[in-house]
Design a protein that fits this description.
With 61 residues, the chain is mainly β. It has no helices and five strands. A hairpin with a 3-residue loop joins β3 and β4. It is globular.
């Protein structure tokens, strides 16, 4: 199975496609298929990159 978030690096802004209510999140780390993201409205969450593909934001929050 592929790491769906392999290109994400700390500092990048993302959204969770299944949880838009969490708002924009900032990637804190991306290690071995586990991405830690600090979401504006949910707080810090660890995402399994083999199950969920986060959506990068390239033009600001």
């Amino acid at each position: 199975m592929d790491d769906l978030n392999a290109l994400l690096t700390p500092g990048m802004l993302v959204t969770h496609p299944g949880r838009p209510d969490w708002g924009v999140g900032q990637v804190q780390s991306n290690i071995d298929g586990k991405v830690t993201v600090n979401f504006r409205d949910e707080g810090k969450v660890v995402i399994d990159s083999f199950r969920i593909s986060l959506m990068p934001i390239f033009d600001g929050p």
